[in-house]
Amino acid sequence: MTDWVSLFSGGKDSSWALYRALEEGLDVSRLLTVHPAGDSYMYHTPATRLAGLAAESVGIDLVEVEPDDFGADDVDDASAQGDAELEPMEAALRELTATDGFDLAGVTAGAVESEFQTSRIRAMCDRLRIDLFAPLWGEDPVALAEAMFEAGFEIRIVQVAAYGLDESWLGRRYDAEALAELLDLREEYGVHPLGEGGEFETYVVDGPHMDRRIDLSYEAVWEGDRGHLEVTDAALV
Predict the structure, then answer these.
(1) Can you tell me the distance from the alpha carbon of 221 to that of 12, in angstroms, rounded to the nearest whole number?
(2) Which one in 16, 165, 186, 220 has a CA-CA gap of 20 to 30 Å to 87?
């Protein structure tokens, strides 16, 4: 088996998993992006429509799973919803395995601490008899952030939802200065420095694995105690 699929949202964690996989020499031949219709237990939700631009910059074909493929609308239990949300991803991977000349070896994932997500992805890999490459799993979050900065990742914050994070964080670069402030906020409010609890979400606009930078135009949408970027234009430059 030789082909790897990178579970990919365009955010920092899945992008770091992809970057590390390429550094390790894994043959990543597809990126797989799931577009949740709304809030999701399993997936990064904001700005996933920009994954196509990121894939073009990285130079790897993208497979997209649409909201209509989800079967979790009538599920009110978190565990059952997580299982249901995973089904379209697994179906997409099974479809890839049926493609002539495609020999699925494994998937990459950007999970850091979420056993809810990782246990389901591991179980999926077991069912498909493939490997899981999860280079962020169990690692120190501050060290991970610093490694991303050192590698040359340019990361933008596209959504915030936590005490201590106001409108000024929207569109801000996630860098050493931002990390230092987040560590102060961890002391005061418990904010996770990688946003693992959903405190903030990100999008990678440039990195060493990308041929061209992604230029974003956007408007900040603030809803009292949380907000997100509404991207009005995006282009490779």
Answers:
(1) 21
(2) 16
Residues 228-236: contacts with CB under 8 Å, at least 24 apart: 228/46, 228/158, 228/159, 228/160, 228/170, 228/201, 229/46, 229/47, 229/156, 229/158, 229/159, 229/170, 229/171, 231/47, 231/49, 231/50, 234/50, 234/53, 235/53, 236/53, 236/56, 236/57, 236/212
Residue 222 has φ and ψ, to the nearest 5°, of -110, 135
DSSP class of residue 55 equals H
**DSSP 8-class letter at 173:** B
d(CA 22, CA 58): 11
Strand, coil or helix: what is 236? strand
Bridge partners, 220 (sequence order): 229
Provide the percentage of residues in the chain whose pLDDT is more than 90. 78
**Residues in CB range of 117: below 8 A, 6 or more apart:** 41, 42, 82, 109, 111
Taking only the tens place, the pLDDT of each residue in 34-75 is: 887 665 555 555 677 899 999 999 999 999 998 665 554 555
First CA to last CA distance, the chain: 36
pTM, full prediction:
0.92
d(CA 50, CA 34) in angstroms, rounded, equals 12
Span 156-236: which CATH code? 3.90.1490.10
Residues of the chain with CATH 3.90.1490.10: 156-236
Q: Which residue has the tokens 């196509």?
A: 52
The residues of the chain that CATH labels 3.40.50.620 are 3-133
Architecture of domain 3-133: 3-Layer(aba) Sandwich (3.40)
